[in-house]
Amino acid sequence: MKTIICIALMFLVFISPIFGVVIEGNVYTIDFELAKTAIVEIDTYPKQQRVITEGYYRFEVPLGSYTINASLIEGNALTAEVSEPIEVTKEGTFVLDLILFPTIDNALDILKETEELDETTILTELEEENEKTPTSTLLIGGISIAILLLILWNIVKWRWMKKEVERRREEKEVEKQVIREDDDLKNYIDYLKKEKRVTQKEMRKHFPDSEAKISLVLTDLEAKGKIKKIKKGRGNIIIWNE
Predict the structure, then answer these.
(1) Can you give the pLDDT at residue 209?
(2) Contacts (Cβ under 8 Å, ≥6 apart) of 170
(3) Were both Cys, which of 16, 102, 222, 237 would link to 106 (CB 3.0–4.6 Å)?
């Protein structure tokens, strides 16, 4: 008996947990370039963290809901970050690309540096122009307008880049949703082909989906001529058409 207990304890100590879910993807900067150095972590228990150097990360996790955080450190300062939630309800490999957005402080610093650089250049040109012509008042007015337009252009560019990132992210989410729906539909078809004849109540026990989703799938299959529904009592009998 002691031998069996010892073997069981050794098995529990040395066995490695095997998860059926893989979350992976690339990490991009705001310019859509791979982030060469970044820190990516996921709030599993215990927390998993990766320091990536080639813009790619990969986690193995159990089923559940998580939040993936990525940050870009330059020097001793946090310059960009992103946080993305993800829920995995079945085993498989899921791709979630991350795009690092500059922090508010970093974005303001970049804008300030750009404005200071342009202002210094413009003032230098102004001083040189003052030595050549007495019409400096008109020139100052033009320079002020140019600075204002530059600031407005930076703001518009920043907002456009943010909208573009959101648009691309939404496109990827739509693609993933289509893939998931195709996989779900295939599971329903395989099940009905195998069973040939089944009640809708039995289908609800077999599939973890809501009753509304199952009804929508059956309506779609019936419209395509794949199945036939027969009303019986308070439920339906589903028959697969060969």
Answers:
(1) 75
(2) none
(3) 102
Q: Which residue has the tokens 């012509």?
A: 133
Asked whether residue 68 falls in the same domain as residue 159, the answer is no
Specify the number of domains making up the chain. Answer: 3
At residue 185, what is the residue type?
L
| pLDDT for residue 132 is more than 90 | no
Residue 55 has which token pair? 């813009």
Shared domain check, 216 and 204? yes
Domain limits at 72? 2-102
Global confidence as pTM: 0.42
**Residue 122 and residue 184 in one domain:** no
What are φ and ψ of residue 120, in 5° steps?
A: -65, -45
Which residues, in sequence order, are CB contacts of 27 under 8 Å at separation 6+?
34, 35, 38, 40, 52, 55, 56, 57, 70, 97, 98, 99, 100
Among the candidates 84, 102, 120, a domain finishes at 102
